[in-house]
Amino acid sequence: MLVHEARRSGSSDPRPAGADGPLVPGRALRPRTKVLPEHARNHNRSLVLQSLYRDGQASRADLARETGLTRVTISDLVGELIAEGLVIELGQREGARPGKPAVLLDVNRSASQIIGVDLSEHAVFRGAVLDMDGQVLRSSEVPLAGSRGEAATAKVLALVDELVQAATAPILGIGIGSPGIVDASGTVVAAPNLGWADEPLQHTLAERTGLPVFVANDANVAVLAEHGFADAHGDMMLVKVGHGVGSGLLVAGALVFGSRFAAGEIGQVMVGTDDGSEGPYDREKCLEAWLAVPRLESKVAAEALAGRPVEPVLREAGQRLGVALAPIVGALNLSEVVLSGPEELLAGVLLDALGATLRNRTMAGFHSDVTLRMTSQGRDIVLRGCVIMVLSAQLGVS
Asked: Residue 89: phi, psi to the nearest 5?
């Protein structure tokens, strides 16, 4: 029987991922170093599960070599994990090696399912029941239809209720990717596009479902998907374009949150500097005015209706994004910038304009060769990121 115990974030000690939750400032997503003795067992469990989850079938001897743990420790841990239903034996390894054939192990991938919910799109809330490998088993969506405040919350609750009923295996946890600023407790501190302020979404859903719930900023959740399923390497930034514009930052193997959990909130950065350096702050000259999907779609439609080419609109949006990103790329020496959102808007002209602007505004040879690309995860990136968020919180796997 799987143990469904919610682990909350909030500690700053160097315990492994999964000890306090998935999103702890400064903590590497995949533990690789020694920890304090009192945390060693959880850390070692994470190492074993991480190895099996990422590399697939392995014997006890393989795990000992891979993790550096002794065979006795591996034997004890594997026995414990099998008893909990987290690991299964698959049978003997085929081969002509002398001696008794090794028994292969794997994570029990069919023992549980995960619910993911994406609240970042401008027209719908989307949710899915997924397996541990991020494959969508069942999906559902509810039209946003301009809902804000309590009405938006009610739609989230109804969508989660539907997905819980649709699950066909024990639910390991529920992950929610929300726009706006989300603190360590899963409270949506501010999501203006949804009319939320200090919305205790994680607490509300945990009380309603009795299941472990983890709520985080949608762009941070998307970074988890790109890191976990696309195997993105190095320091990277993912720009999530939807109802608004946000970004997630992965630096030195850890998510960056900022002192008030607002790192990556680039949508309200003023990039309309046409009035000069003395121009006052104006939300209509912030990045979202050019790049948020509703705004961009409206401008493209207006140009098409007037019989004019739409490329200048897309090019300007890419240039404005480049103005916002150039100082970040320069300050952090990022190796990769990934865009997530409607490909028909972001790929092509807009992405090319972004690249040209970054090359013009950063130091050649050090920052200008940053890799720019669309996400490989498609529209399900936040849903799949919810899988990594839950796995990291519950099992220490990412």
From this structure: -90, 135
Output the furthest CA–CA distance in the chain (Å, rounded): 79
Burial of 80 (0-12, 13-18, 19+ CB in 10 A): middle
Q: Work out the angle at residue 228's Cα, subtended by the Cα atoms of residues 223 and 234, and round it to the nearest 5 degrees.
A: 65
Separation of CA 283 from chain center: 27
Rounded Cα–Cα distance for residues 288 and 108 (Å): 43
Alpha-carbon 183 to chain mean position: 15
How does pLDDT run across 194-242, given as a tens digit for each residue? 999 999 999 999 999 999 999 999 999 999 999 889 867 778 999 999 8
Output the pTM of the full model: 0.84
| pLDDT the model gives residue 36 | 59
Determine contact, residues 243/253, Cβ cutoff 8 Å.
no
| CB atoms near residue 353 (< 10 Å) | 21
Residues of the chain scoring pLDDT < 50: 1-19, 34
The continuous run of DSSP H or E covering 89 comes out as strand 87-92
Given the structure tokens 């404005």, which residue do they identify? 320
Closest CA to 389 of 264, 205, 215: 215
From the list 224, 217, 270, 272, the residue with the least C-alpha distance to 250 is 224
CA dist 393 and 12 (Å) reads 15
DSSP code of residue 93: P
Distance CA 231, CA 320 (A): 29
Task: Let me know how long the chain is.
Answer: 398
Please, which residues have CB within 8 angstroms of residue 348's CB and are 6 or more apart in sequence? 314
